[in-house]
């Protein structure tokens, strides 16, 4: 983080880093067999990775076209998933809606809390507690999603009746929070569980980002007579914004593609419910896991088609995150 | 506006380590006081106790009294946030807020204290930038990021930011150590102008600089590494550099030291 | 000056009235009391309402009192502090509940018998049975995935750091490693499934390994890349200047210097894929019996076992108990990997100069 700039500095010049051009001769002079083999191996590995990515796209698309070409419904808008009957009719509308809405709920719940916890760990918690708490949250991020799913189904779901009843009583008039007193295994349940799941992930990355805010920016704010909250608003949050965005995108990617935690808590059906509280709905990943067992080969191709859509959505989200970060980079403070 | 600082019996700690011990001195209003001494002698630590920035570091704590006119900065019920509004600070490395424009940087401290009319804000920003001898260089790029300026301009931007909130005292922690000679000269000139309005305390490693800008000079030293730093003497700058009363000061100034 | 006059409304600039240290606790206690009072009068019966109400009253009271006593800026600061603490405490509840439930319910049936027996002759509704077959399956699938992914990942990172520079290929690889990191696990499973459909294969353990390897590779590349970048260039130059060829420099100087960090990265990646369920569900299918051969026939794995004990048990508590015990086993496995990885990272960390 070098703030001093080119033309006016009397600090010693930085130690010259050998540029690629300077390092190249060693590689170019790779006449020895050892060098050639090693370069080949490592370059080959890199190429293999590209080939795998291409293969994923190609094979998923191939199997997906097999299914979609025989779809008698509209693949994008049909509200059913009947692949075992003739003629088959299936569409992803419900899955797309469910995947997006549950991820939005998860993000709305998780991001503010995760940022708050990250701030808690970097600026508010008693110093002695910071390390241990951060460590525990780190480990929680490593808990497999199936365990979150099991906990969600057996512990979280029974505890949601109260919340759902309350939402229905006071916000039921909005429509999206009305509840027919069915089992609380709805899109909101999924969203809450996903939020709990991605909370440690987003917290961890945000905490790292906040820790990297240069001390001198915080001191600048302090020296102006800023309170702790004003220091955070002036120096910490602006500096950490792009980092928090990429942390959130990481969490969003997890939420979009999460399979087991959704499959365990959701009672799926193939309808788009106006209310977030009423049982039913589905997500791409959950639908694949739930329908896979009894699907024939054609059914599996149809599921692959839906998986391809999920793949594309996650690619788009990743791309968007990357663009946001790139655009923010010029203002991130990592100048000079 | 400027205020007198009266320090008595001040010690500062990092955890259990005592960094400076039993310092007493008086700093007159509208003067420039320079702190000199070898690395690690605690002069920066002492400077940071004058606006309660020392306690921001983990384990930092202070014993003793610092009177700003007739109020003890470390008295019961004193809000460190309020202290730092009264006693501004400029740091070793220029540290404009990287996400803010030149204008926003200068206005940052003002915005903390309630709302200003846009025109009033513009007036104060212009006045502060003029006060920091920076106005002519940045008046066309007020909305560009502050981090795009040169190092010397950034440091003057930081000075503008500090004086915009009209502190009584301005602390400068080696403000020129990251700058080239021409920028350094600009800052030194600026210090000479600012002392009409503020009490200025400056830490410097550069003895010529201390001789050039300051009215009074304080020499700090430590007995050995791991020992607390102490104030050896404080006197008129002229006297410190011509005829100091302590041998250690003369050794240090004449370069016969460590 | 004019603005100073606006700022200093208080008689002393430094000694703004401040609330005593215990005031947040007092306000908190007061808010809870008031909230319970209101709830009882209004007949609210849900504890969520009580909690929300206390929280709300706490924030309003804090702001009101602080704004009056200390001023608006301090009031905002206090609100922020309150919110951050509340967020932390609220988030603690589900996370602690998760850990507590898993441990307390998991230890019920977790014993040597559970770890050394399969589900071969046990129906889901019956007590007994164990996870031996799942542990074997998990170890084999994850082990094979590591054997595939770790070398490819490390070599790719070596290429990116040591050879690639800013070339076209290196940039493409970097980009697609990022993309690959975001591939959902079920999509990796579907990819292998599409191959299996083409070659008309039945589920088997190694198919799962392939999907897990795809998930593991980008993680290994990223962490290894970070570690290699930490190796100072002076070391490389010192070796090259001695006439050591580049590949030997990498093998003898660069990799040994960063081996601790690389190992840590690989172990964390293993910990991550060990918990993956979705691709295993599609490709390995699950099996009640012990199948030691990952290259033929359906296998079991720990995460899949948990899912099946939950989903196929129709609410039988004995099956739930096994699911919890298997969860505890899996978490223990993942945690041990994590702890060992951190231990290695700390032990092998380049010693700082002091």
Please provide a written account of the structure.
The complex is a heterotrimer of chains A (336), B (258) and C (354). Helix content of chain A is 68%, strand content 1%. Chain A has eleven helices and two strands. In chain A, a hairpin with a 6-residue loop joins β1 and β2. Residues 1-30 and 331-336 of chain A have low confidence and may be disordered. Chain B is of the alpha/beta class and 258 residues long. Chain B has a domain at 5-95 and 168-253: Rossmann fold (3-Layer(aba) Sandwich), CATH 3.40.50. Chain B contains ten helices and ten strands. In chain B, the strands form two sheets. In chain B, strands 6-7-8-3-9-10 form a six-stranded mixed beta sheet, sandwiched between helices. In chain B, β7 (169-173), α7 (181-194) and β8 (199-203) form a beta-alpha-beta unit. The relative contact order of chain B is 0.19. The model of chain B has no long low-confidence stretch (mean pLDDT 89). By secondary structure, chain C is an all-alpha fold. Chain C has 14 helices and no strands. Chain C has helices at residues 2-7, 23-42, 47-69, 72-106, 112-116, 132-164, 168-181, 185-198, 205-230, 233-241, 246-274, 278-283, 302-311, 317-348. Chain C starts with a helix and ends in a 6-residue tail after the last helix. In chain C, 46% of the residues are buried. The model of chain C is unreliable at 1-11 (pLDDT under 50). Chains in contact: A-B, A-C, B-C. At the A-C interface, α1, α2, α3, α4 and α5 of A face α3, α4, α6, α7 and α8 of C. Chain B: Keywords: ATP-binding, Nucleotide-binding, Translocase, Transport. Chain B: It comes from Streptomyces shenzhenensis.
Query: Helical residue percent of chain B?
Result: 25-40%
Count of DSSP H/I helices of chain B = 10
Rounded average pLDDT of chain B: 89
Q: What is the strand content of chain A?
A: under 5%
**What characterizes the major β-sheet of chain B?**
6 strands, mixed
Using the CA coordinates, give the radius of gyration of chain B: 18 Å
Structural class of chain A: mainly alpha
CATH architecture of chain A: Orthogonal Bundle
The number of helical runs of chain A is 11
The H/E string of chain B reads EEEHEEHEHHHHEHEHEEHH
What's the story with the biggest beta sheet of chain A?
2 strands, antiparallel
Q: Could you tell me the mean pLDDT of chain A?
A: 85
Assembly of the depicted chains:
heterotrimer
Straight-line distance between termini of chain B: 41 Å
Radius of gyration of chain A: 25 Å
CATH class of chain A: Mainly Alpha
The total strand number of chain A stands at 2
GO biological process, one term (chain C): phosphate ion transmembrane transport
GO molecular function, one term (chain C): phosphate transmembrane transporter activity
Family (chain C): Belongs to the binding-protein-dependent transport system permease family. CysTW subfamily.
InterPro entries (chain C): MetI-like (IPR000515), MetI-like_sf (IPR035906), Phosphate_PstA (IPR005672), Phosphate_transprt_permease (IPR051408)
């Amino acid at each position: 983080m070098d703030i001093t700039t080119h033309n006016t500095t009397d600090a010693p010049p930085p130690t010259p880093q050998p540029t690629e051009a300077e390092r190249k001769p060693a590689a170019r002079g790779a006449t020895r067999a050892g060098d050639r083999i090693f370069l080949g191996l490592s370059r080959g590995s890199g190429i293999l990775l590209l080939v795998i990515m291409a293969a994923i796209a190609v094979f998923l698309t191939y199997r997906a076209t097999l299914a979609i070409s025989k779809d008698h419904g509209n693949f994008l808008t049909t509200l059913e998933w009947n692949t075992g009957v003739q003629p088959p009719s299936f569409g992803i509308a419900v899955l797309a809606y469910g995947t997006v809405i549950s991820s939005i709920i998860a993000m709305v719940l998780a991001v503010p809390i995760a940022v708050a916890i990250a701030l808690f760990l970097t600026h508010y918690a008693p110093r002695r507690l910071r390390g241990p708490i951060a460590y525990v949250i780190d480990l929680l991020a490593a808990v497999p999603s199936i365990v979150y799913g099991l906990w969600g189904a057996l512990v979280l779901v029974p505890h949601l009746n109260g919340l759902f009843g309350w939402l229905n009583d006071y916000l039921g008039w909005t429509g999206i929070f009305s509840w027919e007193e069915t089992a609380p295994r709805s899109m909101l349940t999924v969203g809450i569980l996903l939020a709990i799941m991605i909370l440690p992930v987003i917290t961890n990355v945000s905490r790292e980002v906040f820790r990297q805010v240069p001390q001198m920016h915080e001191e600048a704010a302090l020296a102006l007579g800023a309170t702790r909250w004003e220091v955070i608003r002036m120096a910490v949050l602006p500096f950490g914004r792009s980092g928090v965005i990429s942390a959130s995108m990481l969490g969003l990617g997890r939420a979009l593609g999460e399979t087991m935690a959704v499959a365990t808590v959701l009672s799926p059906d193939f309808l788009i419910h106006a209310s977030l509280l009423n049982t039913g709905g589905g997500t791409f990943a959950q639908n694949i896991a739930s329908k896979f067992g009894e699907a024939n080969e054609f059914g599996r191709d149809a599921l692959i088609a839906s998986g391809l859509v999920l793949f594309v959505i996650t690619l788009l989200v990743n791309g968007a995150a990357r663009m946001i970060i790139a655009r923010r980079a010029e203002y991130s403070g990592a100048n000079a | 506006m400027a205020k007198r600082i009266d320090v008595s019996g001040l010690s500062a700690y990092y955890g259990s380590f005592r960094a400076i011990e039993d310092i007493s001195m008086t700093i007159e209003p509208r003067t420039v006081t320079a702190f000199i001494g070898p690395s690690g002698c605690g002069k920066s630590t002492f400077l940071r106790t004058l606006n309660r920035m020392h306690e921001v570091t983990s384990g930092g704590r202070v014993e003793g009294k610092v009177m700003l006119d007739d109020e003890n900065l470390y008295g019961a019920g004193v809000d460190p946030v309020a202290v730092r509004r009264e006693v501004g600070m400029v740091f070793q490395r220029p540290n404009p807020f990287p996400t803010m424009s030149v204008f926003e940087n200068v206005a940052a401290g003002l915005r903390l204290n309630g709302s200003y009319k846009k025109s009033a804000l513009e007036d104060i920003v212009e006045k502060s930038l003029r006060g920091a001898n920076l106005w002519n260089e940045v008046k066309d790029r007020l909305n560009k990021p502050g981090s795009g300026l040169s190092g010397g301009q950034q440091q003057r931007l930081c000075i503008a930011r500090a004086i915009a909130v009209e502190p009584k005292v301005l602390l400068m922690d080696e403000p020129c150590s990251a700058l080239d000679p021409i920028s350094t000269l600009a800052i030194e000139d600026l210090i000479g102008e600012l002392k009409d309005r503020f009490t200025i305390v400056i830490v410097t490693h550069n003895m010529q600089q201390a001789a050039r800008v300051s009215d009074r000079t304080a020499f700090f030293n430590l007995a050995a590494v791991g020992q607390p730093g102490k104030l050896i003497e404080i006197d008129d700058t002229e006297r410190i550099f011509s005829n100091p009363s302590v041998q250690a000061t003369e050794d240090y100034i004449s370069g016969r030291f460590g | 000056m004019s603005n100073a006059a606006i700022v200093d409304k208080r008689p002393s600039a430094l000694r703004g009235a401040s609330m005593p240290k215990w005031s947040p606790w007092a306000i908190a206690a007061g808010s809870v009391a008031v909230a319970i009072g209101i709830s009882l009068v209004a007949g609210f019966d849900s504890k969520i309402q009580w909690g929300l109400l206390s929280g709300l009253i706490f924030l309003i009271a804090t702001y009101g009192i602080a704004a009056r006593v200390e001023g608006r800026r301090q009031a905002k600061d206090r609100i922020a502090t309150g919110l951050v603490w509340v967020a932390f405490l609220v988030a603690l509840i589900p996370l602690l509940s998760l850990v507590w439930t898993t441990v307390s319910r998991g230890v019920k049936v977790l014993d040597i018998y559970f770890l050394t027996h399969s589900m071969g002759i046990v129906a889901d509704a019956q007590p007994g049975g164990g996870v031996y077959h799942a542990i074997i399956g998990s170890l084999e699938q994850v082990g094979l995935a590591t054997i595939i992914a770790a070398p490819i990942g490390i070599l790719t990172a070596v290429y990116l750091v040591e050879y690639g520079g800013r070339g076209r290929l290196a940039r493409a690889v970097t980009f697609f490693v990022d993309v690959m990191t975001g591939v959902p696990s079920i999509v990796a499973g579907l990819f292998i499934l599409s191959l299996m459909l083409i070659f008309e294969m039945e589920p088997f353990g190694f198919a799962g390994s392939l999907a897990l390897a795809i998930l593991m590779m980008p993680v290994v590349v990223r962490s290894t890349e970070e570690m290699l970048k930490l190796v100072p260039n002076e070391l490389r130059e010192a070796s090259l200047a001695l006439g050591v060829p580049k590949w030997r420099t990498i093998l003898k100087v660069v990799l040994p210097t960063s081996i601790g960090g690389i190992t840590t990265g690989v172990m964390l990646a293993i910990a991550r894929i060990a918990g993956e369920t979705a691709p295993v569900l599609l490709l390995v299918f699950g099996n009640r019996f012990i199948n030691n051969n990952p290259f033929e026939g359906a296998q079991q794995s720990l995460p899949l076992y948990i899912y099946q004990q939950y989903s196929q048990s129709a609410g039988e508590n004995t099956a739930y108990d096994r699911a919890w015990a298997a969860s505890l086993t899996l978490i223990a496995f993942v945690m041990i990997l994590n702890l060992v990885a951190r231990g290695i990272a700390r032990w092998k960390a380049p010693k700082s100069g002091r």
